Amino acid sequence: MTATAGQPVILLKEGTSRTVGREALRSNILAARILAETVRSSLGPRGMDKMLVDSFGDIVITNDGATILKEMDVQHPAAKMMVEVAKAQDDEVGDGTTSSVILAGELLKQAEELLLQDVHPTIIIEGYKKAMDKALEVIDEIAVPIDPTDKETLIKAGITSLSSKAMIIGAIEKLTEMAVDAILQVAEKKDDKWYVDIDNVKVEKKEGGSLNDTKLVYGIVLDKEVVHPGMPKRVEKAKIALLNCPIEIEKTEISAKIHITSPEQMRSFLEQETEMLKKMVNKLAEVGANVLICQKGIDDVAQHFLAKKKIMAIRRVKESDMAKLARATGGRIVTSVDDLTPNDLGEAELVEERKVGEDKMVFIEGCKNPKAVTILVRGGTKHLVDEAERSLHDALCVTRNLVREPRIVAGGGAPEAEVAHRIRDWARTLKGKEQLAALRFAEAIEVIPLTLAENAGLDPVDIMVELRTRHEKGEKWTGINVVQGKVDDMWKQGVLEPASVKKQAIKSGTEAAIMILRIDDIIAAAPPSREKEGKGKGFGEEY
Length: 543
Description:
CATH superfamily of the largest domain: GroEL-like equatorial domain
CATH class of the largest domain: Mainly Alpha
Strand content: 15-25%
Radius of gyration: 30 Å
């Protein structure tokens, strides 16, 4: 509201709140920093876990940054933007979510100190942008190219990614090896470039057993069972028909009535239906199929005929699983039984129904060159299985990133410390207040090794002094060895990370900080008010 010539001019609806200028900036920075502080203690191998309880009482225990932020019911608009950063990082590279959020929070903290010195937000943004470009340049410069099929290096990078997952600590090496084998199996080389679609690795969860019972199946595992008890439960040298149509009599699209005047007519009508189903089953048998996997339903009568022909059948399989089955077995998904030919059939050494925990599952194994595989995750509790699945996702993403962009850097905060060291030297070439912003960027990026040291219970001041000293001497792979509690050469320790993850974390974190720094006015609409007259109480309201 404003007044002109003594007359008030109302621009906004009653109840709307408005925060302007430095107050708006301060509010946004505070919200983003609080969110960053929440996930900060979960960074690194010595990081802590978070327990998240939703409104239904369901519990999630994890230290995966993206999951923590996804499960939190965040209300503040600036904090929601930080959640988007974590999601973007997770979708793009699948790892480094906690790092990107911590970096964004620290950049905003450093910016706040500059704002108190009357440095304009636009100048801070320009300085941050230039420093980000320089940081990406440094990462590219120090990154070491590798062979994308070098299994040993891929496993080291995977173990680094999973070393922060305390819940699965006993099975890290096994899970990493499976993730690497799975990605190398589904990777395809086209024109000297490797392509990997992570969706071709199916992760199936089943409670029971232990994490060490987790196994990689060179084929597909379906959480289904054979539809009829008379069917074979094990088929060797399987010829698999993949159908996208029901083995049922289709109902007419328009309403129709049939007038039957005698029992013979009724019988012939039913026999005709049976004959049509029999014809479909005979067609399957003719082309040589001994396993049928159907995306739609299978009629009870058809199940009987399939059982007589010794054809194993599974119904109502998900569309995504059908696509994976086609890639694994080399079969083709057919939309009509009449169109099925022997060339459309997929092949597998063994299709078998097995009892896993309390349930039955169908294993399609021994495919010639499967371009889709399954990792069956086992574990003692639901929380453990869920965390193992999240960890596997990180390991799969790290391996995929290295196969697609085979360049690595050391971990343990070494690249961040090197970037900070080089940006301090480079910032001296900048003129004006932008130099202050670039120097603050260097301070902010050191939050990663600093947090690793804090979470490991080390003295952050002593550690950071030694880290800076060694980087000034040219020891670019010096980082925080949290296991032994000292500053160490992380390359020699075998702690490796993909360069693409580091670059994406820097980009995501900086862009989020810049976005929040640009906001100088928050106009929040009034919450919807309930007109209580003539209406009953809402659900959960007290009378």
